[in-house]
Amino acid sequence: MAVELLRRRRGIFLDRDGTLCENGAGYVGAVDKIVLRKGVRQAVAAMAGAGYMLFLVTNQSAVGRGFFPLGVAMACNRRLFELLGEESEFAAVCLSVGTPQLADPYRKPSPKFLWEMCAKYAMEPADCWVIGNSACDLEMAKNAVAKAIMICDCPKGPAFGNKPCQWTVPDLESAWAVISAVDGEDVARINCRSGGFAVASR
After folding, report:
1. CATH architecture observed for domain 3-201
2. CA neighbours within 13 Å on the CB side: how many for 103?
3. pLDDT 10s digit of each residue in the chain, 202 long?
4. Furthest-apart CA pair in the chain: how many Å?
5. What's the predicted TM-score (pTM) here?
6. Integer angstrom CA distances of residue 132 from 10, 15, 21, 148
7. Angle, helices 172-183/40-49, rounded to nearest 10 degrees
8. Contact assessment for residue 95 and residue 71, using Cβ atoms and an 8 Å cutoff
9. Per-residue b or e along 28-66, where b marks 16 or more CB atoms closer than 10 Å to that residue's CB
10. What is the dihedral of CA 71, 72, 77, 82, to 10 degrees?
11. The pLDDT value given to residue 29
12. To which H or E segment does residue 9 belong?
């Protein structure tokens, strides 16, 4: 989608584990565990190239639980950005170390990070997207009144159960196709299902 179609400043809030990089087993607590999912580098570069502001928004409760220090989580983020490349610059990293037992006003599904970034960069939440692979990402978008796309490569549907999402796709490249279509001027409607998507133009 051409940059000129972005009439207002728009943001994309991206989850980390399971969305940008492989989730693996347990917590991602080492730099060598940061492995990009297929097509992620190309999709993120396309988002940045189209003029979207990019934000990493991640819950890292393992830090709050004492499994590893904050420095490890930050090093993992730096490795992620190295793998994404210079063409995929992020405006901010929004990281919460809260746990269900340790209250943190920024922990997803709280919309606090999103609202603060919108205020800082003069964006409207309704013009923003949240992309993630869990219920807390969907709920954060709902709480912020933003649009949500769920990443789910399971043929049986989202792993988080019966929480509905208008757009559910198998990977980040498909998520970018949705955003391009919905924010573009030449698309009348879009219909997404788990495992794929279809775009209907005027």
Report:
1. 3-Layer(aba) Sandwich (3.40)
2. 1
3. 444 444 689 999 999 999 999 987 678 889 999 999 999 999 999 999 999 999 999 999 999 999 999 999 999 999 999 999 998 999 999 999 999 888 899 999 999 999 999 999 999 999 999 999 999 999 999 999 999 999 986 655 554 555 567 899 999 999 999 999 999 843 333 333 333 333 332 2
4. 54
5. 0.85
6. 17, 5, 11, 8
7. 20
8. no
9. bbeeebbebbeebbebbbbbbebebbbbbbbbbbbbbee
10. 100
11. 84
12. none
- Tokens standing for residue 151: 């990443």
Give the pLDDT confidence score for residue 192 in this predicted structure.
37
Cβ of 123: how many Cβ atoms within 10 Å? 19
* Amino acid identity for residue 127 in this structure: D
Report how far residue 106's alpha carbon sits from residue 112's, in angstroms, rounded to the nearest whole number: 6
What are the tokens at 6? 């972005």
What the block records as the tokens of 22 is 């492989």
